[in-house]
């Protein structure tokens, strides 16, 4: 943490001049940051990622479990700079929040009601226009391994609006990256399931995504 955050501060501050060069250089800069995170995890903590399953090359809506900060950065590296749906509080952090919005993250205010959902949809449309995949953590918050909370309502609206297939992503980062400062060495497995087609009714897509994420996790 000391090594990662000590260098994260200047990296984040550098996003201001890098952003002046355009969105593409900024995304390359962000990718270097998440690669640095992976390096710290691998060589300082002894944590590395094992990817199982096929990752489609075309834009998709990726729906992932969320057990630790680890996957919020490592999936940016694995999925080649997706647009990420994140909570509004992160977008309000000085400099960092500005950088996330310039990168193309999609901020959502869970207490903002219909207007917040409409804003999320507009930002998602912009990401899709750029042929970028979108990553969402549909359960809405970090959970401990084995927990299976229901999906947040914004997921089905985003699925309907984008018209993209959904790729469920199971992971077990919580085993090595529990809440707090103590981490454990080991392998984080990320399993990419078969795409679930677009156009399904709300109850069906929510049930299928929920079942797929948790079925994959139980295999872990």
Explain what the structure shows.
The protein is α/β, with parallel strands linked by helices and 220 residues long. Helices cover 48% and strands 15% of the residues. It contains 9 helices and 7 strands. It has helices at residues 2-13, 15-19, 23-45, 69-78, 88-91, 96-103, 113-129, 154-162, 202-219; strands at residues 47-52, 61-64, 83-87, 106-108, 134-136, 166-171, 186-192. The chain has a 7-stranded mixed sheet, sandwiched between helices. Helix 3 crosses helix 4 (69-78). The longest helix has 23 residues, at 23-45. The chain is globular. The relative contact order is 0.17. The model has no long low-confidence stretch (mean pLDDT 88).
Give the gist of this structure:
The protein is of the alpha/beta class.
Secondary structure topology:
Blueprint: H1 2-13, H2 15-19, H3 23-45, E1 47-52, E2 61-64, H4 69-78, E3 83-87, H5 88-91, H6 96-103, E4 106-108, H7 113-129, E5 134-136, H8 154-162, E6 166-171, E7 186-192, H9 202-219
Parallel strand pairs: 1-7, 2-5, 2-6, 3-4, 3-5
Antiparallel strand pairs: 6-7
